[in-house]
Specification:
Length: 195
């Protein structure tokens, strides 16, 4: 974490409404590039720049200015992005990607701005923390955890009320399912299913 910054969460992020985003995009002539017209994005549809690409978000408040730093994971690379908001004037003053050499605002910067805007529109009952590895950066095997890994037990008991699970197994056999997340984590049942 950078000096003077704190981990970002849903309670301390600056509020960025759609009017602020619109004013920033309209007043900044550097936005209208191939990035904002989705030319580069349409050429590389394999990876998303949505919420799963954002991580390690931190911020520093020096009223009225709030500086938000984050990382966008895109094309197997972390891109460090800065967003500066004047909270008194309700104005986005700057969005910058430190890894792109373009003079224009790149797709990483726009993705981070829109991520911050979406966080402002969420109504969350408990605090959400954004200091985490971007989900896009995780291998598919790291995106989930089995109950056995979570509990540290090799075997998991479903003896309390197995009727729903057994009904699922029966239906899976009937349909000959073999690519199912539930079955992926229940090896014994998966082996029984396809023997």
């Amino acid at each position: 974490m950078d000096a003077g910054f704190v981990k970002a969460n849903s309670a301390n992020l600056p509020k960025i409404d759609s009017l602020m985003v619109t004013q920033f995009l309209a007043s900044n002539h550097n936005v209208f590039t191939s990035e904002s017209r989705n030319i580069k994005t349409s050429l590389s549809q394999k990876e998303s720049l949505g919420d799963d690409a954002v991580g390690y978000v931190q911020l520093r408040k020096e009223p009225p200015v709030c500086t938000v730093l984050g990382k966008i994971f895109y094309h197997q690379k972390d891109h460090k992005v800065t967003l500066i908001v004047n909270e008194t004037e309700s104005m986005v003053t700057k969005v910058q990607c430190h890894d792109c050499t373009e003079l224009f605002i790149c797709i990483h910067s726009l993705a981070f701005l829109m991520w911050a805007h979406r966080r402002s529109e969420e109504t969350i009952e408990s605090t959400q923390y954004y200091w985490r590895k971007p989900l896009n950066a995780l291998k598919s095997s790291e995106r989930f955890i089995t109950v056995a890994q979570m509990t540290g037990k090799d075997k998991i008991s479903i003896e309390e009320n197995p009727s729903v699970f057994l009904e699922f197994i029966k239906e899976a056999k009937r349909r000959q399912l073999n690519n199912c997340l539930i079955l992926k984590h229940c090896l014994k049942y998966r082996e029984d299913l396809f023997q």
